[in-house]
Specification:
The protein is of the alpha+beta class. The chain folds into 2 domains: 140 residues, FAD/NAD(P)-binding domain; 176 residues, D-Amino Acid Oxidase, Chain A, domain 2 (2-Layer Sandwich), CATH 3.30.9.10. 31% of the residues lie in helices and 27% in strands. Strand 1, helix 1 and strand 2 form a beta-alpha-beta unit. The longest helix has 20 residues. The structure holds flavin-adenine dinucleotide. Flavin-adenine dinucleotide binds next to helix 1, strand 2, strand 14, strand 19 and helix 10.
Length: 372
């Protein structure tokens, strides 16, 4: 039997993960990417493969599967990564209450509550003053997204024979044909992984879907002095109201009300703070969250200041001089779902809507979507 021919639109992490899953299953795969190199959400993130944010059960399992594939790719490609784990520091009783419930209800083996002293051991950045404790998770992995998303196509080419066409925007699809202007491909299986672009391909399907965009502002420091290492990736209490893993905790509404009073601006701008460190010793810090189909093209410094002032409350960073700021935009489901899978016509599948967890979930999701 001849191999099926598959075409994937988009070389962000979702398209690359789908290309890998298709190639694993035996398809001949072509990827078509609009830009000369992918420059969307997938290169603009923290590089956190972050199972702790996923709720127990299938999503957590999917995150662990993705993590295993990341490690295989990074190992074979000889790329930097760090199994830092993550630490969420708690400074208020309302935060500790949610963490204690999480420990009782979630049951994953890789997490534990830690004392202030243990938290400080996990990261020299942690401020001990007022610290009540923390949640340590061993699962989290940091990759360098700029390096990894650039290297994945080469790995897919060499390992699986996937072919890439960069600098070509797919303008129209009618199965089995795919056009980029007048250029045409033919494929049995077509996957549309176009990220935050809802307007070019199947716009009527995106218009009907419960999906919007989220703009996220990010900051990066200069390398930390004297090889200073942050250890665990860090976050604090505000993160608890942003991730599915904690959504079902009975005390979460109490914590949310507490934050609405204590940090009204942070809640309004969707600010919570995550920090990761790259191979060069730089810290990547974020983030704000603004939602809508039409987003302000300009970055607001008041949002970045909220991020930095909150960071300063729970972490001491030796060198907080900024080297870069930027923003990224990811698609976000508005109905609580964790992905959007649509079949706009036979043979065509749209894979989208992974929100702030595409680096964590894409490899596992792609295997589930493509099938065995
Ligand atoms: C600032 C920020 C921080 C984040 N941090 C994390 C994190 O630490 N951990 C985590 O798990 N997730 C994180 N995320 C989320 C994650 O980055 C996204 O879920 C993920 O990158 C989405 O991948 P994607 O492939 O759908 O989109 P993209 O990376 O945007 O890729 C879509 C690609 O499709 C191409 N394309 C679109 N239309 C066409 C067309 N018609 N023809 C050809 N090509 C086309 C685009 O050029 C683009 O390259 C973060 C996101 C942002 C923005």
């Amino acid at each position: 039997m001849s191999k099926s021919q598959a075409l994937v639109v988009g070389a962000g992490i979702v398209g690359l993960a789908v290309a890998r899953a298709l190639a694993e299953r035996g398809s001949r795969v072509v990827v078509v990417e609009r830009s000369p190199r992918a420059v969307g959400a997938s290169i603009r993130n923290f590089g956190m493969v972050w199972p702790i944010g996923q709720s127990a059960g299938p999503l957590y399992e999917r995150a662990l599967r993705s993590r295993a594939i990341w490690k295989q790719f990074l190992g074979e490609a000889g790329l930097w990564y760090q199994e830092t784990g993550s630490l969420l520091v708690a400074r208020y009783p309302e935060e500790m209450a949610v963490l204690e419930e999480f420990m009782q209800m979630d049951g994953r083996a890789s997490v534990r509550l830690c004392t202030p002293a243990e938290a400080a051991e996990k990261s020299p950045a942690v401020r001990p003053n007022g610290l009540l404790g923390g949640l340590w998770s061993a699962d989290e992995l940091i990759v360098d997204p700029r390096e990894a998303i650039a290297a994945l196509p080469k790995w897919l080419e060499e390992r699986y024979g996937v072919r890439f066409h960069f600098g070509m925007a797919v303008t129209y699809i009618e199965h089995p044909y795919v056009w980029a202007g007048r250029l045409r491909w033919e494929a049995d299986l077509i996957y549309v992984c176009s990220g935050a672009d809802f307007e070019i391909l199947y716009p009527e399907h995106f218009a009907r879907a419960p999906i919007t965009r989220c703009k996220v502002q990010m900051l990066r420091t200069l390398p930390q002095p004297n090889g200073w290492q942050m250890g665990a990736s860090l976050c604090a209490g505000l993160t608890l109201i942003h991730y599915g893993a904690f959504a079902q905790m009975p005390s979460l509404p109490v914590l949310r009300r507490f934050f609405e009073e204590k940090y009204p601006q942070h809640v309004q701008r969707g600010v919570h703070v995550l920090v990761s460190q790259n191979a060069a010793g730089q810290l990547t810090i974020g983030d704000t969250h603004d939602y809508g189909l039409e987003l302000d093209p300009f970055d607001r410094m008041d949002g970045n200041e909220l991020v930095l002032s909150y960071l300063n409350e729970f972490a001491h960073i030796p060198r907080l001089h900024l080297a870069e700021t930027w923003h990224g935009i990811y698609p976000k489901m508005t109905d609580g779902r964790t992905e959007l899978i649509l079949h706009p016509e036979p043979g065509v599948t749209i894979v989208n809507g992974l929100g702030g967890a595409g680096m964590t979930l894409s490899f596992g999701l792609a295997e589930a979507v493509v099938g065995g």
